Fold this sequence. Notes:
The protein has helices at 2-10, 21-29, 41-50, 52-57, 63-71, 74-80, 99-107, 134-145, 195-203, 217-226, 240-251, 254-268, 273-284, and strands at 16-19, 33-36, 91-94, 111-114, 151-154, 171-174, 189-191, 208-210, 230-232.
Amino acid sequence: MVPLARELVSRGCDVRFATGDELAARVEALGFRCHAAGPTLAAMQSNAIADPRVRAALDAEPWVAAAAIFGGRVGAVAEGLDDADLSPDLVVHDAMELAGPFIAARYGVPWVTHGLGPRWPSLVEDAIPSNTNAEVFRTLIEAVGSLDLDVLITTGWGVGRDELGPVPANVLVEEYVPQGQVLDQVSLVVCHGGSGTMLASLGAGLPVVALPQGADQFVNAPCWLRSGAVAVLQPSGLDVASIASTVASTLHSAEMRAAAELASQAMAAMPPPSESADAVLALAEP
C-alpha cells in the first residue's frame, strides 16, 4: 500500500493512514500522517479467544476465529476516529481491515479493497497461534543452526527472546528488521508464507522456504509452489531434519534460483503504482 500512497501524495492528495498503536509510529516514520485507532493485533487475538462463543465454534466453524479477530475491531476503529479531522473522498483498506467499508459509509464515500492475495475464511483455523508459537521458532533455530550458514531470524512482537532457548552462534535473533534493508544481502528466505514477505522475496529474485502458520498462508502456498521458486513445509512436517534438509536443498537449487529470477522479472513488468493511482482517483471523482 505504501507505493500507492506515495504516488497519491506526489499528485497532491492528502493521504492519511489509520492503524493500531503498534504500527502508527512506523507509518509516520515513512512520512505519512497517521491516526492510531483500534486495538493491537495481540489484543485482537486475546479478545477473540477469550470469548467462549468463539472457542466453542472453532472446531466446527474455524472461520469464526478470523471473523472475531478482524471483525471485532470495527467498532474500536470507528470510535478511535470519532475525533479525527477527516473528510475523505475515498477509503482504501487492507483486505482484512474490515473497518474500511464502515468508515467509508460514515462519510458517504466509495472504498477500495487493497489485497495482496487470495483470502479464504474457511482456512484460518491456525490464525490465532501464527507468529506467537515459540515452538516453531525453536525448531527453526535448531534446524538452521545445524547448517553452515549465517542466519537472521525476526520473531515479531508475539514471541520473547527468553522463550527461544539456546541460540547457536551462527543465528542472530531480532524482533524486527525492515525487509528492504536485508533482502539484497541474503541468498534465501524462510518465512510463514504471508503475502507481504513472499512477494518482497520473489520480487528480489530470492528462493523461499515457506512454513504456513495461519491466515492466507495455506491458501497462498499452492500458488507459491507453482512458481517453482518456493518449497513448502506444512505444519505436520515441521521437524528439525525436514527444515534443515529443505533449506539446504533449496539454497543449492539452480532451478529454484532461476525460477525466482523469472518471478522477479515478471513482477517488475507489472503496471506501476501510477496506474493503480489513476484507477483509485477515478473512483474518488464526484
